[in-house]
Write a structure and sequence with these properties.
Blueprint: H1 2-23, H2 30-48, H3 60-68, H4 71-106
Length: 107
């Protein structure tokens, strides 16, 4: 039951992130988010797999935590880059609107 729930949530996450990544595909930082998405969904295999603990310590769930914990850094990096990109686009848009307003006033 837990495996099915983990698989369905992983599939739902993959679909929603796929839609989001398609919408922002022209942004330079989208490739990093795409790589993180693939890494996250590859790591779900560790969550649903069962194997005997390696050395009596590292079982499948512990390995999943070990693999997915660095992903938080990449999510944070993506959010910062996306925010900076949005701020850049907004300032560029404001400059263009300001330029167009000045151009209309000069006529």
């Amino acid at each position: 039951m837990l495996r099915q729930v983990a698989f369905y949530f992983s599939a739902l996450n993959a679909i929603s992130l796929g839609i989001h990544l398609f919408r922002i595909r022209k942004r330079p930082h989208a490739i990093g988010m795409t790589a993180m998405t693939f890494a996250l969904h590859a790591a779900i295999i560790l969550e649903v797999m069962e194997f005997t603990p390696l050395g009596g310590v590292l079982d499948a769930h512990a390995a999943w935590h070990l693999v997915t914990s660095p992903i938080n850094f990449f999510i944070y990096w993506y959010q910062v880059e996306d925010l900076l990109w949005d701020c850049y686009e907004k300032s560029l848009h404001e400059k263009m609107v300001g330029f167009q307003l000045k151009k209309k006033k000069a006529r």
